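Field reference: sequence -> structure
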Amino acid sequence: MMKELLLVNYNIHAIEQLSVNERTGYRDKNYYYFIISSVDKEMIHLEQAALAYYLTENGYYHTAIPIPTIHNKWFVEKDNQYYMVLRVSDLRNDQKSSHGEALAEFHHVSATYSFEPKEISSYGLWKELWIQKLTAFEQKIKQEASANMNRYYRLLVDSFPYIIGISENAIQYLQESETEKRYDQSDQGVFSFRRYRGNMLNPIIWMDDLVYDHPTRDIAEFIRYRLLDDTVSQEEIVTFLHDYQRERPLSIFSWRLLYARLTFPIHLFDFMEEKFHGNSFEQYYEELKNMLQKQTEYEYRLGNLFHDLNVDVEELAIPTIEWFVK
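Structure field:
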């Protein structure tokens, strides 16, 4: 079906099927092609497309960019579903610079982009978005718990006051940080990823992963999952941030945003959101119980992060949340 879609609508003769980052793609003689779907012609794709084209123009040839059909349309409709085809010129199989340096260079290049997207930008909006998320989830959990009387939702209801508390701490910290005047040019908006998990090391930069935000979004999300993994040493995080700062030093404002984002339990909200769409409640119960147990260690490691990074919070007058440190 998909090879037919490429042939009929794009005149692309696929000769090989492949898989990259768990996505199925096709290759002709010169390029790699991947098909993404959408329930409608979302504006978000077009904003991401502009970012993707900018990246390819600036040397990121492993970025997946959308291509028009032979009839000069961006979307193909088939069986009440819209599809867009992404083309990649080259797969990145080697990384010449360190991980931290690669992300810093990516942020440096994208900071020169002249326009701020509207639909995919979270720049300067974290506080409002976090408040909206907290309110929406509180209401949703009440509804779901009433309809699903099981161990998973009982545990979720019991633990949600903690999630509210730590979220409010993060929101308060962020609000206080907004008065911080020690910022610089590196605090301007950049191309970022929805949830950065080492994307710069992947063979392809996926257009539909791109967002527009403060650079500490990517740094925080990478560190978050390192802090949650007890097999990862703090030294890996220290090396990553040291390499990043060699190219783009963090301002005091950036340090405060980084700390605020790591305090806000985005990983717990992502987990809950995903489970709203399923019904394997016994499995979810075990996973949630495990995540809550990990949260204690996460807070401890976060509480010691500045010390491990050799950041003197007293000298720089950076406040921290005392109850994280045990």
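Note: The two ends are 57 Å apart (CA to CA).
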